[in-house]
C-alpha cells in the first residue's frame, strides 16, 4: 500500500541531505575536480546544479584511470581503500574508486538488527554459526588487493577491523576463504550438513541461496556418502588445504542419518528442518526477481528473509524497512540524492528534483553524489517513491534504465516481464528461470522468450505458450497492445527448455570470482548470440 501521510516537514530531510553535500564539497574543494567545478563557490542547490553537470561513468573514466595509477586529489581528497569492479551485466565492467570513508558507511549501517539477532543466538548457543553461500578468496586478506567486488571489500574490511568474527562461519575461516574454485557449493554443503547450529544463511544475492539449495537437492546423496567414506572426488577443483580441512571436520553418523532422512522426505522447508535454530536468510533481491524468490521459499519455508541494503558499486543508498519487504528508506549520510523525473508516459524529463521535492507514486532515475568522488552521478536505477513519514522517505526499485526492451516505443521493463511471468505460471508450471530479449526481424519487432523448467513434457506446444505470453504482455502494457494491433510488433516466440539445455543456451556459469544472479533481460548482442546457438 502506498504511504502518503505526511507526519513532518519534508524540508527537514532536504536540509539534512544538503548539509551532507556541503560537507563533501568542502572536504573536496581543492581536488582537481573540485577546482574545475567551483566547489568553493557553491552555497545552494541551485549553485550545485549550475557548476556541476549531471554525469555518467564515462565522464569520470579518465579521472579514475589516473587515480588507479596513483595520482591523488583528482576526484576526491578522501583516502582510497580499493577499486571496485562491477560484474558487467549491463555493459563493460567498470572500475569504481572506493574510499575508506565510504566503506565504513557499509559497516556502520545495520540491516534490521541482523548482527544483534546473531549475538543473541550466540548467548543461547555458543556454537551458533553462520552459513555463507558464495566465494571469498584467500587473497582477500592480503594487503595488495587493489581491485575487488564490493562484497569482497566489505568482508575484508569487516575482518581486518574486527567488525566480524570469521571463525563464526560454518567451517571456520579456512573453509570460508578458499582459493579460486567453481566447486564452492560442494565445500559449503559438506560443512553445512555436519553443522546443526546454523542460525543464518547469507549470500550476496538471494539467488545465490537458491542455487545452493538446488545443488543441495541434487547432490545430497553423493555428498553424504562422501562424508561417510572420507572421500572427496579428484575432479573437484579444491586445494589440498580445503580438502584437508573438510576431512578434519568431526563427523556424527547420527547427524548424517538425520539429514539424510529429512532430505528423503522432500525439500519443502528443508532449511528449518535440518537447522532448527535458523533465524533468517539474508541477501540482495528485488521484485523483478519474484520467480527466484518464490523458488527459494520452497526451501526456506517459514524462515524469514532479510533483504540486504539497496546499494550499488557506487554508493550505499537505502536500508530495508521490514522483513521480506522490498521497501527501503534512504540513508541520508551515505550520499546526496537527486532525482530525474519520469513523465506520465514513462520517459525521463530534464527536470531534476531534490529529496524534499519527490512525490509518492512517481518514478525517478536516482542521481547520487557519493563519498568516493562521483558527483551528480546518474545511476541508471529507476525507483518509485512510496511515501514519507516519521522523517523517512521510502522507495522501491523498479528497473535499470538501460534494461528496457523498446522496439517501437512500448518500453517493456523487467517489472512488466515479471508481471507477465506471474501470469504464465498458470500456463507453464514450474518455471525456474527465464530470459527475454527483443530484436527486429524483417523490419518488424519481435520478442524472444526462453523458459527454464524442471520438465518440458507439459502437453503444450510452444506456439500456444507464445499466444498466452502475447496476451499477458498486452494486458500489462497498453502501448505494446496498440503496437501489436498495428502489426508494428510481431507475435512473440517462446522456447521451453530443461535446466541443462537452458543453461547451455544462455551460457550461464558460476564464475570463479563472481556472485550469481538471474539474467532476466537480454541485451540485443546476447540475444543474437543465443539465437545463433
- Order of strands, main sheet, comes to 10-11-12-17-16-15-13-14
Number of helical elements: 19
Kindly, what is the distance between the CA atoms of the first and last residues, rounded to a whole number of angstroms? 44 Å
Number of strands: 22
Q: What would you report as the Rg, rounded to the nearest angstrom?
A: 24 Å
Q: Which range does the strand content fall in?
A: 15-25%
Shape descriptor = globular
What does the main sheet amount to? 8 strands, antiparallel
Q: Percent of residues in helical segments?
A: 25-40%
The number of domains:
3
Q: What structural class do helix, strand and pairing data support? A: alpha/beta
Kindly state the mean pLDDT as a whole number? 85
| Low-pLDDT residue intervals, each spanning 5 or more residues | 1-8, 509-514
Amino acid at each position: 500500500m502506498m504511504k502518503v501521510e505526511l507526519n513532518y516537514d519534508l524540508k527537514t530531510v532536504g536540509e539534512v541531505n544538503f548539509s551532507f553535500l556541503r560537507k563533501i564539497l568542502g572536504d573536496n574543494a581543492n581536488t582537481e575536480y573540485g577546482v574545475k567545478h567551483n566547489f568553493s563557490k557553491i552555497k545552494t542547490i541551485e549553485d550545485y546544479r549550475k557548476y556541476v553537470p549531471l554525469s555518467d561513468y564515462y565522464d569520470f573514466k579518465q579521472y579514475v584511470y589516473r587515480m588507479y595509477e596513483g595520482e591523488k586529489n583528482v576526484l576526491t581528497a578522501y583516502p582510497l581503500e580499493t577499486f571496485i569492479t562491477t560484474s558487467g551485466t549491463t555493459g563493460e565492467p567498470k572500475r569504481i574508486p572506493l574510499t575508506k570513508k565510504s566503506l565504513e558507511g557499509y559497516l556502520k549501517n545495520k540491516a534490521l538488527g541482523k548482527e544483534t539477532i546473531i549475538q543473541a543466538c550466540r548467548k543461547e548457543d555458543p556454537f551458533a554459526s553462520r552459513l555463507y553461500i558464495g566465494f571469498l578468496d584467500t587473497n582477500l586478506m592480503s594487503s595488495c588487493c587493489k581491485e575487488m567486488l564490493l562484497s569482497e571489500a566489505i568482508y575484508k574490511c569487516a575482518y581486518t577491523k574486527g567488525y566480524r568474527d570469521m571463525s563464526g562461519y560454518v567451517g571456520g575461516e579456512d573453509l570460508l576463504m578458499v582459493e579460486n574454485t567453481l566447486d564452492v557449493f560442494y565445500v559449503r554443503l559438506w560443512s553445512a550438513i555436519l553443522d546443526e547450529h546454523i542460525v543464518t544463511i547469507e549470500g550476496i544475492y538471494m539467488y545465490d541461496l537458491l542455487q545452493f539449495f538446488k545443488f543441495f537437492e541434487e547432490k545430497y546423496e553423493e555428498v553424504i556418502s562422501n562424508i561417510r567414506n572420507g572421500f572427496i572426488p579428484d575432479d573437484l577443483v579444491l586445494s589440498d588445504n580445503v580438502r584437508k580441512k573438510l576431512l578434519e571436520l568431526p563427523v556424527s553418523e547420527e547427524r548424517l542419518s538425520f539429514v539424510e532422512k529429512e532430505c528423503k522426505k522432500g525439500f519443502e522447508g528443508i532449511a528449518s528442518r535440518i537447522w532448527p535454530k535458523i533465524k533468517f536468510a539474508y541477501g540482495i533481491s528485488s521484485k523483478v526477481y519474484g520467480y527466484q524468490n518464490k523458488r527459494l521459499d520452497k526451501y526456506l519455508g517459514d524462515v524469514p528473509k532479510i533483504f540486504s541494503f539497496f546499494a550499488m558499486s557506487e554508493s550505499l543508498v537505502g536500508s530495508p524497512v521490514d522483513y521480506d519487504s522490498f521497501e527501503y528508506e534512504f540513508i541520508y549520510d551515505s550520499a546526496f540524492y537527486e532525482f530525474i523525473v519520469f513523465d506520465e508516459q514513462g520517459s525521463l524529463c530534464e527536470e531534476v528534483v531534490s529529496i524534499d521535492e519527490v512525490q509518492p507514486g512517481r518514478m525517478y532515475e536516482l542521481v547520487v553524489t557519493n563519498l568516493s568522488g562521483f558527483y551528480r552521478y546518474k545511476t541508471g536505477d529507476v525507483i518509485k517513491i512510496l511515501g514519507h513519514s516519521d522523517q523517512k522517505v521510502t522507495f522501491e526499485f523498479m528497473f535499470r534504465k538501460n534494461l528496457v526492451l523498446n522496439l517501437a516505443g512500448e518500453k517493456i521493463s523487467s517489472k512488466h516481464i515479471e508481471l507477465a511471468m506471474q501470469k504464465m505460471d498458470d500456463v507453464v508450471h514450474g518455471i525456474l528461470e527465464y530470459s527475454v530479449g527483443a530484436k527486429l526481424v524483417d523490419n518488424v519487432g519481435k520478442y524472444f522468450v526462453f523458459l527454464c523448467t524442471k520438465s518440458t513434457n507439459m502437453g503444450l506446444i510452444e506456439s500456444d505458450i507464445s499466444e498466452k505470453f502475447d496476451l499477458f504482455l498486452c494486458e500489462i502494457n497498453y502501448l505494446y497492445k496498440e503496437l501489436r494491433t498495428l502489426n508494428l510488433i510481431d507475435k512473440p516466440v517462446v522456447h521451453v527448455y530443461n535446466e541443462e539445455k537452458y543453461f547451455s543456451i544462455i551460457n550461464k556459469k558460476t564464475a570463479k570470482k563472481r556472485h550469481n544472479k538471474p539474467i532476466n533481460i537480454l541485451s540485443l548482442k546476447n540475444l543474437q548470440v543465443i539465437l545463433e546457438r
